[in-house]
Amino acid sequence: MRVAVMGAGSIGGYFGGMLARSGNQVTLIARGEHLQAIRDQGLRIQTDSKLLTIPCGDNLAATADPSEVGPVDLALLTVKTYQNNVAIPAMLPMVGTDTTVLCLQNGVDSYQAAAEVLGEDKVLPGAAYIEAARLGPGLLKQSGSVVRIAFGEADGSNTERGGAILQALTEAGIIAQFRPDIQQTLWTKFLFIATMAGVTSLSRETMARIMPRQEWRRVIVACMREIEGVARASGINLDPNIVENTVAYIEGDLEDMHASMHADIMSGRPLELEALNGAVVRAGQRAGVATPINDLIYAALKSFAAGS
Ligand SMILES: CC(C)(CO)C(=O)C(=O)O
């Protein structure tokens, strides 16, 4: 497959690198010293056990300019959601008649922003579970054993392109699922990440530190119940034990689990607040469900959302 990755940071870089290693023709869209380092030294991915180097050459290329790439079979959208206004229109030269755009961003409505610009029939919503960070120019760190993508057609249909992407991801060693119930999948991750990104950013403490504390645990469970209520009132069919399952999932892997928004606020970078707690507040207003905890998180973090 010809693949382009819009946003070759830690998550896009990891998936792009794996797809190149398994024989796809991958172009990373990157900028500045990150781009230069990838070109000079290859993309380097440090896992818990080894350093993988994927040199630019046969299967991997990197550029700042999407118009150099031309139409691809698969474009991954992995920029932070607050970059969408610039990044999504910039993808247009890479989207042709047969291109599929797989949105792996946080949030339940990010893929719609892409669909509005790139075409309703082009964009597949998806959710990524991966613990990754950028250590330096051209160098990524992927931690822990969880690397998973769940995606689907927005209308729940079973399509040939979905099967082809599933095969490419699986051959790249990524645990992938092509799901008929993609809204449920998106909201399941959303309930987890909006809550944990919100509370860890608010407290400036990691999940491992706040999860065992009863006072935070009550807030976390209440925040998840709030999001569950908004989802159900919006017609999303979540698992009846969604909150208990999500708490158990977090507690099962606490040491390795960090919310990227927490890392962002600690480093003074912009926040995905609008796509996370802001989106809960807006969806709550639409569905007529009160969201006092997310209102508080949203209000408290708003002054930091543009970075500091
Ligand atoms: C799944 C997880 C926790 C890591 O990619 C995430 O989406 C985030 O931190 O924003």
Automatic annotation (TrEMBL):
Show the GO cellular component annotation of the record: cytoplasm
Q: Which residues form the Ketopantoate reductase C-terminal domain?
A: 181-303
Keywords (alphabetical) are:
NADP, Oxidoreductase
**Ranges where the Ketopantoate reductase N-terminal domain occurs:** 3-155
Q: Which GO terms describe its biological process?
A: pantothenate biosynthetic process
Spell out the molecular function terms from Gene Ontology.
2-dehydropantoate 2-reductase activity
Would you say which domain of life the source belongs to? Eukaryota
Query: Matching InterPro entries, A to Z?
Result: 6-PGluconate_DH-like_C_sf (IPR008927), 6PGD_dom2 (IPR013328), ApbA (IPR003710), KPA_reductase (IPR013752), KPR-Related (IPR051402), KPR_N (IPR013332), NAD(P)-bd_dom_sf (IPR036291)
PANTHER family for this protein: 2-DEHYDROPANTOATE 2-REDUCTASE, PROBABLE 2-DEHYDROPANTOATE 2-REDUCTASE
Protein family membership = Belongs to the ketopantoate reductase family.
Q: Which NCBIfam families match?
A: apbA_panE (TIGR00745), PRK06522.2-2 (NF005091)
Quote the protein name from its UniProt record.
2-dehydropantoate 2-reductase
**Species of origin:** Geodia barretti
